[in-house]
């Protein structure tokens, strides 16, 4: 029996019918060499036999003296958690994304361990997929990505690699995925009192007091400058997931041409796609959109402390010229990093937390604050180096499926794998119609930057 | 804009994460003669073109002055409502039932019209299925069944039959599906005040007062006699659906042998299956289980009024002998019908409503009342006569998918079609483990009765 941390409790509190708080990952595999046509069905049979479930996947939510705790589920029903499913004809990536869109919209059963793994057959070209869904209170996004990587091997000949729910438990454990999270920012701002979170109204009141004080402080005034946009409306319960891979070599060639980082280029791709999308919706704000971008602040000589900060990246969506837009984004990101370089760890924590606080306040109360600190989340999560295999099946791509929230209707999460940058976009299907078109706009943006650089 | 009736509002109030309030229907079809192998994919393409959506399927929930109303959805997204999906290998009925179990567990998006139609390919033997899901606040179970029948034709050569969401609206409209429903019983007991339902606590208090008075009244005392059982626990959010057809000729042969009705025999089959299931779970109560069985009370000379009553059928699950059990069930059903024959319409309404009130009280408050009036719902809904086709595809079977509720973890709904009796069992997957075994027990029961009758 393990009590839930206050942070993990918040993920349960924040969850509502139209705002599920689970994260997901989509892994696309190709059949091993020489595998039979019914390979996926056989794999499903083997996975059904993997009935020994290891922590945290064997833990379900319970209450002791009114406090939420994780306890071992004595009646774990693997058939509920592991599901073998199929795509309809013609089994393209489009059908796969539809499948994930629908599944990611569904709340999970709170009486059971909060995870599901869907093995998906019916993809064209001898491919199959795994869609894994885990509640954020059980595993955070980065830990989930690490686990999904731990079940893979660089060796195509290695067998007996267990599924994620049967991995041997790790000694060190997670917990230290760092900041950059709305919920962690709440906890930091509340300090010690956050460790004994009382009720949501109390938390919200404390948060509002802190934020209102910060708004008068010149050091933080620059935080409150994001425009209103259609990305920042209330959301509904149904999701659209869109995902695609781009070659890291192409992106690196653009970096070299302009003297920017990979992160600058992918941020500029997102900026350009958002600009085109909003223009087509006749909804581009005059003022530039602001993205919240978590960044690693780890220095080689640092010890302990919180190593993730957030940058409020000006996306310069008011700028028509793609090259100028990239350069300005690069300059802004660089300036933000320089500012962080001169901050103490305590100052970094404060700045990060205050940046996230208005969004957190809205999440807790449902009230739209009079100020918006950012319009969209663009998160880049490190992925595995080099090719990976799962019992001989080559991992072709992996795409993060994150969380859309009220007033943050779109989340763009990226990861890297095998000389690819993998984009996973999750959004509210009603607030953001035809969200999948952003994939075309992302591609247009990269092509445009290549052309401008004469590549 | 149409205000929701108080009854329909109650279905929204009663819904919670682990208790969705939608009803469903599963229709199994075979391919038309000479249809190509990709028939279902082509059908999906044709159905996607059916973008004119007729009432009530174009109505979504909204609020005006705090009151729920149905308004036309101006941004209806057919892709959200109509879904083309596939079963995994090997595409047996078992995979179909798994699919429906999972889908029926998911809440629907309240921002949109509350219905979904899933076209399912990948079944063996050139078959396909339609699973239709409609919120009970939009359409009640019997109306849904009627609509599902209206889209079919007795003529295998008829084409251009629209899907359910594009049916021409009916002039008469529904609303008069009669009693037998928990929610309608609440409304009746509250009389005029029920027409302006205030808050749930008010409704519950009024209900409790009425029920407590009835308990002292000798005329109603017999209502409060059901034992406690595992069927009457709190439920979780995940469902198991089990369905199968039995030949009406076999059932009628048993009827003739024992001089009972078809309804008596199917009730005895349910009784026997419940007895075996609970014995195997070591959970058969000493006292016999009581089923709530809605019955039609329409007489040829009656005009108006409520024509559905409920019978509290003693299932005699304490009786070991299957023949004696059937006979006793028959006698009990007959006695209940005779009692109804001597009641005035007002008395019928009161009796029905009071029978259902303790369950309704529990639903509203979450409190388990000290008395249980019945353990399980066994409902027999009339189906179409003769063979039906949908644009040349023969309907092979249709199975109702009803609602499991707190303290009523199992619902057994039956219908008739083309010389078959179709059973649809829906239950909470955790409260009632391996519920699907009931299908075997139902079959065993019929075989046993046949053998005893020397058939």
From TrEMBL, chains A, B:
Keywords: Acyltransferase, Glycerol metabolism, Lipid biosynthesis, Lipid metabolism, Transferase. One of its GO terms (biological process) is response to nitric oxide. Pathway: Glycerolipid metabolism; triacylglycerol biosynthesis; Lipid metabolism. It catalyses: an acyl-CoA + a 1,2-diacyl-sn-glycerol = a triacyl-sn-glycerol + CoA. Its EC number is 2.3.1.20. Residues 4-266 form the O-acyltransferase WSD1-like N-terminal domain. GO terms for molecular function: diacylglycerol O-acyltransferase activity. It comes from the Bacteria. The keyword Acyltransferase applies. Coiled coil: none annotated. Residues 305-449 form the O-acyltransferase WSD1 C-terminal domain. Pfam families: WS_DGAT_C, WS_DGAT_cat. One of its GO terms (cellular component) is plasma membrane. Belongs to the long-chain O-acyltransferase family. PANTHER family: O-ACYLTRANSFERASE (WSD1-LIKE) FAMILY PROTEIN, WAX ESTER SYNTHASE_DIACYLGLYCEROL ACYLTRANSFERASE 4-RELATED. This is diacylglycerol O-acyltransferase. It comes from Marinobacter santoriniensis NKSG1.
